[in-house]
Design a protein that fits this description.
Layout (H helix, E strand, L loop, with lengths): L2 H7 L2 H26 L5 H22 L5 H22 L9 H14 L1 H21 L4 H100 L5 H26 L6 E4 H15 L4 E5 L6 E4 L1 H16 L7 E11 L2 E10 L6 H4 L8 E2 L2 E2 L3 H11 L3 E7 L2 E9 L2
Parallel strand pairs: 2-4
Antiparallel strand pairs: 1-3, 4-5, 5-9, 6-7, 8-9
Length: about 425
């Protein structure tokens, strides 16, 4: 592991304080050894003070030096350590001195912090110092070899491990930087996507609002124009004193007003999600709905076959009535004189759950295939036929009841199937 990676794990101030502490303790121990076990002179004391000052200066320089010079400076300080160790060895027995082990400490630390080549170079420097010590005193050649070879043996594995760790640290660092860059790009893309999504949502909202406004204006236009036209006719007839047909025109105004009321009621149902459930007699409810249709539309007949075993169902009566009205209206709106609307209900068990199936059909009414697949979408059109919001309101209301609604249409007619859970 190289020194720059250690600096990232341990702040240089703390790391170099530890090295300073080791150097000072080692120096103190060495001085005491020389003073009490070797017959040294007072020069040792002054060397001790000088080393303390030098090591403190190394510490200050190391924590303030530019990182690009860090390797060279650290190598220089370790080289100075070699001189110090050699001096103490010279004064305490030469190559057989106990301070010989200091070379191992310096070479190991240098190999780990600086790398293989620095460690080998310091091992070589230590070998030169040992040769100098061996030459200055009588020595055994074999002992000299035994002192030099271990220095390279300790430098080589420490340096190789350091090189491998440094290599993989660089790879990890590159991967980390690449990952951070990718994360930044991803964050940027996510923000751009969010911004585009918001823009699309706003555009879609505007588009839906424009479509809704345009289609609603068409839906409301016909009854309003009819009411306006009938009002003009009434006004003219009243001024002319011809009042014999007034009741007929008033009835037409009432019918057109009811159409407007149905449209407005459907619009309100789209935004109203509140439900008020009650135990409703569904057979009686259908009878009320049928009676209302018979009052409004002439020659409209119903064939009803309701399951007498299922009378009470939890419903929101107001909303459910709107849904059934819309279904029946959609079956008769294309024909002025529909023959029969068929209504039947029966109980069915699906996945151990009891379901009430309500079928409402007109065997003479066919929905164009162009709009059948999207019939529950607002303002779906196909050919000459156009659907407003009545059937989407039906689907919404049935869904709020926990049920489903489907439609089938072919040459045999059209049938709506409503499925409601029996609670």
């Amino acid at each position: 592991m190289r020194i720059e990676y250690i600096d990232r794990m341990i702040p240089p101030v703390y790391l170099n304080f530890i090295i300073l502490f080791i150097r000072i303790i080692s120096t103190v121990a060495a001085v005491f050894w020389c003073m009490y076990n070797a017959k040294s002179n007072d020069l040792i004391y002054y060397i001790f003070l000088g080393l303390i000052y030098i090591y403190i200066l190394f510490y200050i320089i190391r924590i303030t030096i530019d990182s690009k010079y860090c390797h060279l400076f650290c190598f220089f300080t370790f080289f100075v350590d070699q001189f110090v160790i050699t001096y103490f060895m010279y004064n305490t027995g030469g190559i057989y001195s106990v301070f010989y082990s200091g070379y191992f400490v310096i070479i190991s630390i240098a190999s780990i912090l600086l790398g293989l080549y620095y460690g080998l170079f310091l091992a070589l420097a230590s070998s030169v110092f040992i040769l100098y010590l061996g030459i200055s005193v009588s020595f055994n050649t074999l002992d000299l070899v035994y002192k030099i070879i271990p220095l390279f043996i300790i430098a080589l594995p420490s340096g190789v491990i350091s090189e491998y760790v440094a290599y993989y640290s660089i790879i990890r660092e590159n991967l980390k930087n690449e990952l951070e860059e990718k994360n930044l790009q991803l964050t940027k893309y996510i923000k751009e996507i969010d911004s585009l999504q918001k823009q699309l949502i706003e555009q879609e909202k505007r588009k839906i609002l424009e479509t809704f406004t345009e289609d609603m204006s068409h839906v409301l236009k016909n009854p309003l124009m009819s009411i306006g036209g009938i009002a003009d006719i009434l006004d003219r007839k009243i001024k002319e004193g011809k009042i014999e047909d007034i009741d007929k025109y008033i009835e037409k105004i009432k019918n057109e007003s009811k159409k407007l009321n149905v449209v407005l009621n459907n619009v309100l149902q789209i935004s109203d999600g509140k439900m008020v459930f009650e135990d409703i007699n569904i057979i009686a409810l259908f009878n009320e709905i049928i009676d209302d249709f018979k009052k409004r539309i002439r020659n409209l007949n119903f064939s009803v076959n309701m399951d007498e075993h299922v009378k009470f169902v939890k419903l929101d009566k107001k909303k459910f009535t709107v849904a059934i009205n819309n279904v029946i209206d959609s079956l008769i709106e294309a024909r002025k004189e529909p023959t029969i609307i068929y209504i039947q209900s029966y109980e069915k068990t699906i996945s151990n759950k009891k379901i009430l199936i309500i079928e409402i059909s007109n065997r003479q009414h066919v929905i164009p295939q162009a709009i059948l697949n999207n019939i529950f979408e607002p303002f779906v059109s196909g050919g000459s036929t156009k659907k407003g919001i009545a059937l989407p309101v039906v689907k919404n209301i049935i869904n709020l009841h926990g049920g489903t609604v489907d439609v089938e249409s072919d040459e045999n007619g059209t049938i709506f199937k409503i499925s409601l859970p029996i609670l």
